[in-house]
Amino acid sequence: MEASNHRPTKMVIDRQALRHNFLQEKHSLKPETKLFAVLKADAYSHGVLAVAQVLHEVHVDGFCVATLDEALQIRQAGFPETILVLGVTPVSQANLASQNDISLAVSSCDWLRQVGSQLTTSLKVHLALDTGMGRIGLRTRTEVLEACQLLQADSQLIPEGIFTHFATANEPDTHYLEQQIQSFQELTADLPLKFEYRHCANSATALWHSKWQFDMVRFGIALYGLNPSNEVIKEVPYQLQPVLSLETEIVYIKQMTAGQKISYGATYTAQENEIIATLPFGYADGWLRRMTGSSVLVEGQLCPIVGDICMDQMMIKVPQLYPLGTKVTIIGENNGHRLSATDAAHYAGTGNYEIVCNLTDRISKKYVN
Ligand SMILES: *Cc1c(COP(=O)(O)O)cnc(C)c1O
Fold this sequence. Notes:
Blueprint: E1 10-14, H1 15-28, E2 34-38, H2 40-44, H3 48-57, E3 62-65, H4 68-76, E4 82-85, H5 94-99, E5 103-106, H6 109-115, E6 123-129, H7 141-153, E7 157-164, H8 175-188, E8 197-201, H9 203-208, E9 216-219, E10 244-249, E11 252-256, E12 261-262, E13 268-269, E14 274-279, E15 295-298, E16 301-306, E17 314-318, E18 327-334, E19 337-339, H10 341-348, H11 352-358, E20 364-368
Helix pairs in contact: 10-11
């Protein structure tokens, strides 16, 4: 989708905050641990190529993405870093990956058996291990040993990594996490083959269990300044600076009288003389209808969204007749008050990950600093 650049709704992406989060994490790791930035889903909606450029300038060690297409986009833009596809790539696409020097996660021995004959150049692979996430990966020691044999038997396959993913690293209760760590250690102990990177740490593990950084960290949500526990765990080893703000302007404003109604379904009724402002921002931009009733900031004051959120517009109740063009903050700071993606997530009964990923590329992006 083309961004609507002629509409006053925009994401403001603070490059300095991105650098800050990255460098704080970098400095908290052992000097030999590699720091990979997770750029899947258009860098959690922050704009993948712009984010990659900032991180390239501060010497990121590599990038992780979800799909081969996301990897190709970064590679074709000219970035030289290692790029790892975390999801399952069809065997039929493995050669395309190898030709573009893209590393692939491998989650079955069958995949390794089938891929060998198709490669025209060598392919870097990371064995995915399922230690309790129940998503993708080898599940037993027997399978891991078999995969090692298959890798040893094919010189086109480069054993670049072996990894797992945690289901509960962002929760205060570490019981299940400890089980997964133990299983990862058992599955990777004394293998007949040396993998360059053994890795298991997402943002939550990196922040709260950095002992388990192994050879590399896959740093996603915290890179964007968001707390992976949605602030259930408030203590963080360094300040996370939110990278994304979301702003718009009042484009229409009116005085309503008691009994007049607002939006589809006419479910909201003005109880008295109310001032209602209209914003050029709606669910097609990713602010889902379940956000009705939550607040945005106008001149530092919380103003509730009233009536159903429309596809492209929404209405808010404001305390006075502001001039058209008055700034409205949906995520970010406004006159000393702040609303975060995590606040929105709490309202919607979800996580900050989903709030930012939902933002669509109809919203124009402005990069600052
Ligand atoms: C998305 C993802 C990450 C990044 O997780 P964050 O919680 O955003 O840091 C790391 N590893 C894998 C396998 C992932 O799918």
